[in-house]
Each structure stands twice: as C-alpha cells, then as structure tokens.
Write a structure and sequence with these properties.
Elements: H1 2-18, H2 28-34, H3 42-47, E1 50-52, E2 63-71, E3 78-84, H4 93-99, E4 106-109, E5 115-122, E6 128-137, E7 142-152, E8 161-173, E9 181-186
Antiparallel strand pairs: 1-4, 2-3, 2-8, 3-9, 4-5, 5-6, 6-7, 7-8
Length: about 190
Amino acid sequence: MRTALVVTAAIAATVSLAACQKPAANTAASNATAVGGAATSAASTATGGESMNPADLPRAKPGLWKMKMTNSMMPRPIEFENCITPEDNKVDWSGQQKKNNCTAPDIARGFDGSIHGSATCTMDRGMTMAMQFRMSGDYQSHYNMHMDEDVSGAPMAQLNGKHTMDVEATYAGACMPGQHGTIHAGG
C-alpha cells in the first residue's frame, strides 16, 4: 500500500513536470503579464531570479526516463521508468491546476537557472497540500526535483505533516512503440 502511494506521488510529480511547457523568451514584459502586472513575485524575491509564467516551465524530453524517488515517508528509494510522449507534453498547466484545485503557482527562475516555486492544492475530502519545490537540469538528459510538502486533512493520518520528496530523472532513450506511462516500478 505504501509503495503504491509513493509511486502514485512520483508519477504525479513526473506528470506535473511533463505537463509543463518549454521555456519561452523570458522578458520582463511577459513576466509582468504572467503575474497580473507585477514584475516580481514572492518566489522571485526569495530566489533572486525572475518570476515565471507556469506555461514557460521546461518540459522533459519525450522518451523513456529512469526515475529514482526518495520520500521522507519511505524507508528506501523507489526506482521506476516513465515513458513521456509528445502528447504528455501538450497538457495545459492551467487545466491541471483547476483539476487539482490549486492556487496559482508562484514560480521563478533563480540566477543559477534552477526553478523554484510554491502552490497549495485542496484535494478531495478536504486534504490540503502546500508545496515548495526546486527543479534543476537540462530536461533533455537529466533533471532533479526537490519538494517540501505540508499535508493536512488526509484520510490516512500518517500522510499528514511535513514531508520531503526528491526525484532524480535520467533520459534513457526512446520509448518502445506502444509504451506510455509508468513501465516498471520497484524499490
């Protein structure tokens, strides 16, 4: 049961990254429009970088990705493979945000090129997850993501509280014809 929950969380994190779009030209004018006219945000102030529109987040290269996820709730890492298709990269971030009842994410690119952000989502049955994340990498051959989560109102009491999750992803080549989603999970 725990493995299923963790794999589901890892897939959700992977899908969230895959649902993002490639970076566009990052100009002050487009950033101001993206955050409702403000040229900076809390994330950009905290990280020392420029505020970003969620649509400008990088997408993982389509293909087979080897993923390793560690989670503060799990005794050992979970390793799995995920096939990301070009169709996965067409998912609209705003649709995912509405589907998961999330606040507008506060996202910024740091001076070192990493991406920092935060959002809060209210799931079914009143479960709330406040997240802060940091992603780095080229998203073509490798990327890392660190997430701090604060969960409340979960139907299973052990899910409540502060948790961390780290995902390390390495591109492994093309998916085989017909492959899509999680290919193998183990740990």
